[in-house]
Write a structure and sequence with these properties.
alpha/beta, Rossmann fold, Hypothetical Protein, Haloacid Dehalogenase-like Hydrolase, Chain: A, domain 2, eight-stranded mixed beta sheet, seven-stranded antiparallel beta sheet, 17 strands, 31% helix
Length: 263
């Protein structure tokens, strides 16, 4: 059996926040041919509802939170790890003190903060709420994922706080840089660990594709690791194949030229 692990942001969703109809058609065709599709993302389950429900993209498994959670096609949890509350609260406070955009998900709720304004975070947008952010955070028993990013979309402050997190809590959490975002997840969780978990479970031949730094572990874990011609050179060097679109890779897997999918 063949299994495709596909990143979401920058891979299926690009600048216009839309998945190419050709990519969707290719993924459907791949499943019809007996393959399985896995979305492998830093997003948490609350952020995936639009893609899975409204847009109706088919899947067999979900690797979420950069490997922190793995769900089956019924959205039943196969694997899940959490960041302990005291550690997560420290990291969130550091992000708030540095005036970064701060997001978290505890599995039930997702909240963000910027400029001392708390908001409820979802795939549909951010809704301001009157609560004090850190007081609200203390109600969470643990955290699935924490994300930080700078207002100016740069990484200088991100790199400073990344080192601080690793120095203080490197035995408990992993930091994954995705362009100008820093995702913090439980130790030994990555997109690559998600690939390895499902490879062990299914014994499938795996094809992995992504565009950013947090996709490197996935690209390297796949039997056939792929990326894009717009990805950083360092990422392209780790890949077995370089494409422009996901549907090109699917076309190769199915044994036909990708441009046949354009007809």
């Amino acid at each position: 059996m063949k299994m495709v692990f596909c990143d979401i942001d920058g891979t299926l969703y690009r600048e216009d926040k839309q998945i190419s109809p050709l990519n969707k058609e290719a993924l459907i065709r791949f499943r019809e041919a007996g393959g399985q599709v896995v979305y492998c993302t830093g997003r948490h389950i609350l952020e995936m509802e639009t893609i899975l429900v409204q847009d109706g993209y088919p899947f067999d498994y979900l690797v979420l939170n950069n490997g922190g959670a793995i769900l089956d096609s019924d959205k039943e949890t196969l694997y899940e790890k959490h960041i302990e509350a005291p550690i997560g609260l420290d990291i969130l406070q550091w992000g708030v003190d540095a005036n970064m955009f701060v997001h978290m998900c505890d599995g039930q709720n997702s909240y963000g903060c910027f400029n001392n304004q708390a908001f409820a975070h979802s795939d549909m947008g951010d809704t301001p709420i009157p609560d004090d952010y850190m007081t609200l955070m203390k109600k969470s028993p643990s955290f699935q994922i924490i994300s930080l990013n700078q207002e100016d979309m740069q990484t200088d402050q991100i790199n400073i706080i990344k080192k601080r997190i690793e120095d203080h809590y490197g035995d408990y959490v992993e930091c994954h840089l995705n362009l100008h975002f820093l995702d913090i997840v439980p130790k030994n969780c990555s997109k690559g660990s998600g690939v390895n978990y499902l490879k062990e479970k299914t014994n499938a031949t795996t094809y992995t594709i992504g565009d950013s730094w947090n996709d490197l572990s996935m690209i390297e874990a796949g039997d056939h690791g792929c990326t894009f011609n717009y990805a950083h050179d360092d990422i392209q060097e780790k890949a077995d194949h370089v494409y422009s679109y996901v549907y090109e890779m699917i076309g190769d897997i199915l044994g036909g030229k990708y441009n046949e999918l354009e007809k």
